[in-house]
UniProtKB/TrEMBL annotation:
Protein name, entry field: Outer-membrane lipoprotein LolB
Compartments reported by the entry: Cell outer membrane
A cellular component term, taken from the record's GO annotations: cell outer membrane
Membrane topology of this protein: Lipid-anchor
Organism annotation: Piscinibacter aquaticus
Presence of keyword Transport: yes
Protein family (similarity comment): Belongs to the LolB family.
SUPFAM superfamilies in the cross-refs: Prokaryotic lipoproteins and lipoprotein localization factors
Annotated keywords: Cell outer membrane, Chaperone, Lipoprotein, Membrane, Palmitate, Protein transport, Signal, Transport
Domain of life: Bacteria
GO biological process: protein transport
Signal sequence segment: 1-26
Length: 176
């Protein structure tokens, strides 16, 4: 594994494999609420092996302010991203780490940038109003991602980034 691969593997191992977990934050967050399972895969670039992360998640809030919890299959919250205007932090059992943006946080933790702000709308099965989009069948293209809604009725959304390395995010929502 090269230096970048090691640098990416260490935060992921710390996030999802730590022995301690974060307490569940019961503080209300205004906006939407989603939970389910998230699978992220980053394809090989030739220099690096493919990478993948699977976690339970809870996403609350909105593009402007919110929280994303990543949990183990047993429900232990291993990492929490929190954001509001002027403040983005990653909270792990090791403490808080500030980031300049959600983009920077996801790039550092997952190895690739994810459009978290757009995800709130994508999980509703619609394009994010903050950027232009193009309709596709069945879904849309936005921000360099193709959002496939073929299984939306089954609470499954798949987003694929077209730029190299290819990134696939599969979300299976829990509906209560």
């Amino acid at each position: 594994m090269n230096r970048r691969g090691v640098a990416l593997a260490l935060p992921l191992a710390a996030l999802l494999g730590a022995c301690s977990s974060l307490p569940r934050d019961a503080a209300p967050v205004a906006g939407d609420s989603f939970s389910g399972r998230l699978a992220l895969r980053v394809d090989s670039t030739g220099e690096e092996q493919p990478r993948s992360v699977v976690a339970a998640f809870e996403l609350r809030g909105a593009a402007e302010a919110g929280r994303l919890d990543l949990s183990t299959p047993t429900g232990q919250v291993m990492a929490q991203a929190r954001w509001q205007p002027g403040r983005v932090v990653l909270v792990t059992p090791q403490g808080e780490t500030p980031f300049p943006s959600l983009d920077a946080l996801t790039r550092e933790v997952l190895g690739e940038s994810l459009p978290v702000a757009a995800m709130f709308d994508w999980l509703h099965g619609r394009p994010w109003p903050g950027a232009a989009h193009e309709a596709t069948a069945p879904g849309f293209r936005q921000l360099g991602w193709v959002v496939d809604l073929a299984r939306f009725a089954d609470d499954t959304i798949v987003a694929m980034r077209e730029a190299a390395p290819a990134v696939t995010v599969r979300v299976k929502l829990d509906r209560s």
